[in-house]
Specification:
Layout lengths: L1 H7 L2 H35 L3 E5 L7 H4 L3 E5 L1 H19 L7 H23 L1 E7 L5 E16 L7 E6 H6 L3 E2 L5 E9 L2 E5 L16 H4 L2 E5 L13 E8 L9 E9 L9 E5 L2 E27 L6 E11 L7 E6 L4 E3 L2 E9 L2 E8 L5 H33 L2
Length: about 400
């Protein structure tokens, strides 16, 4: 235990961990070109262990493509740094009032590390697309999907049942609450294109659809490799079988049919319907939605360019916040470096899609912690400096009085 304690309190461990952190950031920055920020953050910083491979496009990549460098992930380095910081503090720190600045500095650094972990685990990012004068109360996670079964039988309301992609992939048979239906995944394509078989007679993928658009339009699927680039979106597609209650053989569900669902088949297409026991349901695969207790309505969108160029100078969206629980409605201008913070969400002006405005939506419960941590470190450094300055002046003052 004494050897273990000396290791965790060692300055050499601190230097080694900081060096590994710099190496991790360097390798992650290199892979950002191929994988994008989101995937690099997931692989390198939101993990305990990771690897870096020698890029084939680098000099000698044809011969060194086998080289793989194992690295500690961001979570492991963070845990070790926290242990090292706390152990060294309790070993070397002597409680004195003139050490208050050192305590504040260490607490600020510790809080800064913890805030990074909280952000990595709890932060949610999504996109909200606003059309003129059309209120919207949800955003979409473009890198995650969900299967939805929608019951519109009630005249003034609809009931939406959502099944996350992870549940869909891990479960064999998924019952739909308050309905006689169950769903079963037959095949899933993380990224794909779809097209008409009449235009693609040489398509190799066999269609499993027996109902819906896959049959009516004779759609075929073209699998594609996953993309991680920030300006590209994966088109997820799946074959889903829908089963109902069987009155004659309860242990053997009735196979209603198999539908082809895809994020490419969106609101621009007619909804795919399931008719069973005199009720009609809709089935779709779509990006995961995050619903808000309020809505935003786009009143005006400006896309300013530098004169004589196509270079964007400024994006801005004038939106109206509609919140029945907090009237009256108010208008806010969102533009670059001036986000809207409301009800725990932050709305940034991110892009545009024709006449529509695209907002980046971030929910981060710990967004204030980095500011408080930096402030604490700054105050600690200031206090520590003035205490040493005061001590120095006290030492000099008797000498100044001598003739």
């Amino acid at each position: 235990m004494q050897k273990l304690w000396s290791i965790f309190t060692s300055l050499k461990l601190t230097i080694a961990l900081l060096g590994l952190a710099m190496l991790l950031i360097f390798c992650g920055t290199l892979d950002q070109v191929d994988f994008g920020i989101y995937e690099v953050q997931k692989r390198y910083f939101a993990s305990f262990f990771t690897t870096w491979g020698y890029p084939q496009q680098w000099p000698g990549g044809k011969y060194l493509h086998w080289f793989v460098l194992p690295l500690p992930g961001g979570y492991l380095l963070t845990i070790l740094l926290i242990i090292n910081l706390l152990a060294a503090h309790f070993k070397y720190f002597v409680p004195k009032w003139n050490k208050i600045g050192v305590v504040m500095i260490h607490l600020g650094i510790l809080l800064l590390i913890i805030s990074g972990v909280i952000t990595s685990i709890l932060q949610e990012e999504s996109q909200m697309v606003l059309s003129l004068d059309k209120p919207s109360n949800y955003s979409q996670v473009t890198r995650d999907n969900e299967l939805v079964i929608i019951d519109r039988s009630a005249p003034n309301a609809e009931q939406t049942h959502t099944i996350s992609k992870n549940v869909l992939l891990s479960s064999s048979l998924i019952p739909i609450p308050n309905t006689p239906l169950s769903v079963k995944l037959e095949k899933f394509y993380p990224n794909s294109d779809i097209g008409l078989r009449s235009n693609n007679p040489d398509a190799k993928e066999k269609s499993l659809a027996t109902q819906g658009a896959g049959v009516k339009m004779d759609i075929v699927v073209f699998p594609r490799p996953l993309t991680h680039k920030p300006d590209e979106v994966n088109g997820a597609t799946a074959y889903v079988s829908v089963l109902g209650e069987n009155s004659t053989e309860p242990d053997q569900p009735e196979n209603i049919g198999t539908w082809l669902v895809s994020t490419i088949i969106d609101e621009r297409f007619p909804p795919q319907k399931i008719v069973y026991q005199d009720k009609t349901y809709e089935i779709a695969l779509r990006p995961k939605r995050i619903y808000f207790p309020f809505a935003l309505k786009l009143l005006k969108f400006n896309h300013d360019l530098y004169p004589g160029t196509d270079i964007p100078r400024n994006f801005s969206s004038l939106v109206e916040i509609i919140n029945p629980n907090n009237p009256p409605d108010r208008t806010v201008l969102i533009y670059m470096n001036n986000p809207l913070r409301y009800e725990g969400y932050t709305f940034y002006q991110a892009s545009y899609d024709g006449p529509r405005s695209v907002l980046q939506v971030v929910k981060n419960p710990g967004w204030l912690l980095p500011y408080f941590a930096v402030l604490l470190v700054g105050i600690g450094l200031t206090v520590h400096f003035f205490l040493h300055l005061l001590k120095y002046l006290r030492r000099k003052s008797p000498q100044a009085l001598q003739p």
